[in-house]
């Protein structure tokens, strides 16, 4: 029994181990192949995912649209729970952007512990895609929800990103390995469960089989045991003799052994049959799988073809779209630039970026030479000599001629190239497009690649042509803008000029009005002074120099002289009085004015620089001296603690523009500049200094008439006086006087003295005091006197006594009619009538005309006995 049991157990164990082994090996193989298949499919899924993302963001990386990239990748992160993090590297593996903002600028997203360069960690590698297995150094979460724990192994993938065929970086995405692990684990469990099920069904069957098969052996064993027991008590022979084999074998021994062998045979047969069935099933299975796989492969191939075609179409569309997008962005930017050359440079840069071509140029067509000239270049063309191109010559000339874009794959071997053009020996791919300006081809824009091989995208040519159209619009805009700007500037200039002229007019009108007033006042004061002066002259002639009355009279004469100086300032300002205009040398006037001013003033140094060979100017010397004296005086007032005055003369030619600035006619002018090192003036003071009565001097010190009178006098000489000054840095007054070719006037003025005479003088004046005093003065000189109080009386007296009257002393302005009317009437009576004009006004207007009409002389009121007698003497003797 024990033997039977042991045998049975041993057999059971051996067979079970064999079956178990077969089951385990099969399960292992199945599990391994399933794991491999699942892993590869996961890699491919990740690759597809990463490729899709990289394409979507490549254009945005190129244009640094980080916001769009972030939205795209965050959406992917949100929709794919296995995606843990992302990062974008540039070509040099620097991180440009990542889901983990802390890590920007470092190699690693913060959650990755191991350096990804380690080759041991690489699990999968294709042309553009790499997968590594790396542990997380920090937990990863998205929107608060944990996605990966610290230490968890992840797939760290890297997909190359290209833009228009050029690598620009890599998109790095981390995926969780959990799903794959779970999948593998589940398949292993399934296989093991299958194995266990097989074992559980096969082992009981085996047990029964073994039991049946070894039952005869058991019985044999039992009989043998019986024999052994009997042999212990009986002799061997007896035992053997008594052993009936049939009895030992229980009568069935041979059959049982046969059955045993049969059973073994059946068992092995069964095993063989089972094995064959298994093999058949496996074969069937494999055949099925092969059949199915074949069909699947076929379908897969078709699908792959379809996908490839679709991808190609998508790729083309994507390139076109990204070019169009870039074109759109570029165009918006271009339209904002309005400076033509600046815009051209920008166009070249943008077109180069769009086409990924490094160098560019713009040729402008010039009608004068009928050639094209490079006016803007970029990249390697900067080093190429800038030579003009003829129409039809080379790429540029042809594009201009045909008005169509042209692409040359390799310029250096192209038959149409300009031979011998230095610098173009290594010029490769080149493209040029016409640029239309104001409806015609105005120039040619080109892009090129030196050296490197370059292949232009199919769609790029169309985009470049579109770009050229937009560039033409932008350039036309810029041209229009510059034209409008020019017109606007011109309009502004005209407006400004108008404004300036208006201001001049206002100033002139203002001065005119004040001038008339000042002239009237000066006239009245001069009449008063005349009465005083006349009486004093009489007193002086009646008294001897030692007499006290004579001395007082002298004082009064001095006061009248300064009163007269004041009225002459007023008259000067009133633009009156170019009494004796003669061609003079400005240098002479400067010298005489300086000697009057006196060179020795306390602390003031005077220097002069007088130009030689200056043309003369037509001036009233006395007035011009008065102007210069005013300037010297002002300069000395501006330098209370001393300083320098410099007088310079020179000559200048004013063209139309310059002359307009001075409000003068163009031509040759003599200049006198008086500069000082005094306190100077700010702009506000400068704008008022020529106004009458403007003064900054303390009350009672200045009248504010000096410069107003200088202005009036210079203006009256058809000249201009201007000032340049800065506060604290002195002032410089410049006078422009029109030059004349006339030679200098030789002065033959006789010295002033009292000249007695004889004859009859008709004194005409509306002021009785003046008539009275002049008559007395004339009588004192030896003349007989007649008088008239207005024009008509003058004419009737003259008509009556023309033969007796030797000279008429005629006032110019009288209430009834002017002296000019009386003069004309007297001239009709006697064309030889001798008339000396006598006026409180200066020699201007009427008086000047009367002199021109033939009057013999002019005396400015108030006048002294010397002046009166000298003038009468000159006229009577002449
Ligand atoms: N060389 C100068 N430097 C600084 N300020 C000057 C100069 N010349 C003129 N000015 C300014 O111009 C003002 C007007 O000068 P203007 O000669 O008309 O009058 P005034 O000198 O003040 O008085 P007046 O000439 O009657 O004595 C002066 O008060 C002074 O403020
Ligand atoms: Mg002054």
Automatic annotation (TrEMBL):
Segments passing through the bilayer: 191-214
Domain Histidine kinase: 520-741
EC number, as in UniProt: 2.7.13.3
Coiled coil: 296-330
Chain positions with 4-aspartylphosphate modification: 811
Domain of life: Bacteria
Residue ranges constituting the Response regulatory domain according to the UniProt record: 760-876
InterPro entries reported in the protein's UniProt record: CheY-like_superfamily, GAF, GAF-like_dom_sf, HATPase_C_sf, HATPase_dom, His_kinase_dom, HisK_dim/P_dom, HisK_dim/P_sf
Molecular function terms, GO-annotated: phosphorelay sensor kinase activity
Record protein name field: histidine kinase
Species for this entry: Desulfoluna spongiiphila
Lineage: Bacteria, Pseudomonadati, Thermodesulfobacteriota, Desulfobacteria, Desulfobacterales
């Amino acid at each position: 029994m024990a033997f039977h049991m042991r045998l049975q157990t041993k057999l059971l164990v051996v067979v079970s181990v064999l079956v178990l082994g077969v089951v385990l090996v099969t399960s292992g193989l199945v599990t391994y192949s399933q794991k491999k298949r699942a892993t590869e499919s996961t890699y491919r899924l990740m690759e597809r995912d990463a490729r899709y993302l990289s394409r979507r963001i490549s254009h945005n990386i190129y244009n640094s649209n980080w916001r769009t990239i972030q939205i795209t990748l965050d959406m992917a992160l949100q929709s794919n729970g296995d995606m843990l993090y992302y990062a974008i590297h540039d070509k040099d593996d620097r991180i440009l952007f990542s889901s983990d903002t802390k890590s920007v600028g470092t190699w690693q997203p913060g959650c990755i512990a191991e350096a990804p360069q380690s080759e041991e960690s690489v699990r999968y590698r294709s042309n553009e895609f790499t997968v590594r297995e790396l542990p997380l150094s920090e937990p990863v979460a998205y929107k608060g929800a944990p996605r990966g724990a610290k230490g968890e192994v992840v797939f760290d993938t890297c997909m190359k990103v290209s833009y228009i065929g050029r690598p620009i970086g890599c998109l790095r995405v981390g995926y969780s390995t959990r799903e794959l692990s779970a999948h593998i684990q589940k398949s292993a469990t399934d296989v093991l469960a299958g194995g266990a099920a097989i074992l559980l069904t096969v082992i009981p069957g085996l047990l029964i089989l073994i039991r049946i098969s070894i039952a005869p052996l058991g019985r044999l064993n039992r009989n043998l045991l019986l024999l052994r027991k009997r042999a212990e008590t009986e002799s061997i022979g007896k035992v053997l003799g008594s052993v009936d084999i049939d009895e030992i074998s229980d009568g069935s021994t041979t059959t049982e052994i046969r059955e045993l062998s049969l059973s073994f045979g059946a068992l092995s047969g069964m095993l063989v049959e089972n094995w064959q069935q298994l093999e058949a099933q496996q074969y069937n299975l494999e055949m099925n799988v092969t059949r199915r796989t074949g069909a699947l492969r076929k379908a897969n191939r078709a699908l792959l073809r379809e996908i490839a075609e679709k991808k190609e179409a998508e790729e083309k569309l994507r390139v076109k779209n990204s070019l169009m997008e870039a074109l759109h962005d570029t165009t918006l930017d271009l339209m904002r630039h309005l400076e033509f050359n600046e815009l051209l440079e920008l166009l070249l840069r943008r077109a180069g970026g769009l086409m990924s071509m490094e160098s560019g140029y713009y040729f402008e067509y010039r009608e004068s030479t009928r050639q094209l000239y490079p006016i803007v270049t970029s990249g390697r063309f900067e080093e190429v000599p800038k030579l003009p191109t003829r129409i039809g010559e080379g790429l540029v000339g042809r594009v201009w001629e045909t008005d169509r874009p042209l692409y040359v794959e390799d310029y250096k071997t192209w038959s149409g190239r300009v031979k011998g053009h230095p610098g173009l020996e290594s010029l490769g791919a080149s493209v040029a497009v016409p640029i239309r300006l104001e409806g015609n081809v105005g120039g040619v824009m080109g892009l090129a690649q030196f050296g490197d091989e370059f292949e232009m995208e199919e769609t790029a040519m169309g985009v470049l042509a579109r770009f050229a159209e937009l560039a033409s619009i932008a350039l036309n805009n810029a041209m229009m803008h510059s034209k409008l700007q020019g017109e606007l500037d011109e309009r502004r200039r005209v407006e400004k000029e108008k404004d300036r002229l208006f201001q001049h007019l206002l100033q002139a009108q203002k001065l005119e009005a004040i001038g008339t007033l000042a002239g009237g006042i000066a006239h009245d004061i001069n009449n008063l002074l005349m009465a005083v002066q006349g009486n004093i002259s009489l007193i002086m002639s009646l008294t001897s120099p030692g007499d006290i009355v004579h001395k007082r009279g002298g004082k009064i004469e001095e006061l009248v002289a300064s009163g007269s100086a004041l009225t002459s300032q007023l008259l000067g300002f009133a633009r009156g009085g170019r009494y004796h205009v003669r061609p003079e040398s400005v240098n002479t006037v400067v010298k005489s004015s300086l000697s009057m001013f006196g060179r020795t003033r306390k602390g003031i140094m005077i220097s002069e620089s007088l130009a030689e060979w200056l043309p003369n100017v037509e001036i009233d010397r006395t007035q011009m001296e008065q102007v210069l004296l005013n300037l010297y005086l002002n300069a000395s007032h501006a330098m209370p603690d001393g300083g320098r005055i410099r007088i310079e003369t020179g000559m200048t030619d004013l063209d139309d523009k310059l002359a307009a600035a001075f409000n003068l006619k163009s031509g040759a002018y003599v200049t006198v500049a008086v500069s000082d090192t005094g306190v100077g003036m700010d702009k506000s003071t400068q704008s008022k200094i020529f106004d009458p009565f403007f003064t900054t001097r303390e009350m009672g010190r200045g009248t504010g008439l000096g410069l107003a009178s200088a202005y009036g006098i210079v203006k009256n000489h058809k000249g201009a006086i201007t000032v340049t000054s800065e506060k604290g840095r002195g002032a410089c007054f410049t006078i422009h006087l029109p030059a004349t070719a006339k030679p200098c006037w030789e002065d033959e003025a006789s010295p002033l003295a009292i000249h007695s005479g004889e004859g009859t003088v008709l004194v005409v004046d509306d002021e009785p005091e003046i008539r009275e005093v002049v008559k007395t003065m004339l009588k004192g000189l030896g003349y007989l006197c007649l008088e008239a109080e207005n024009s008509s009386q003058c004419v009737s007296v003259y008509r009556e006594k023309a033969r007796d009257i030797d000279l008429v002393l005629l006032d110019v302005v009288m209430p009834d009619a002017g002296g000019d009317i009386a003069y004309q009437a007297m001239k009709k009576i006697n064309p030889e009538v001798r008339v000396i004009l006598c006026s409180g006004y200066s020699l201007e207007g009427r008086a000047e005309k009367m002199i021109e009409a033939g009057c013999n002389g002019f005396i400015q009121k108030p006048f002294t006995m010397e002046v009166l007698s000298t003038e009468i003497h000159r006229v009577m003797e002449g």
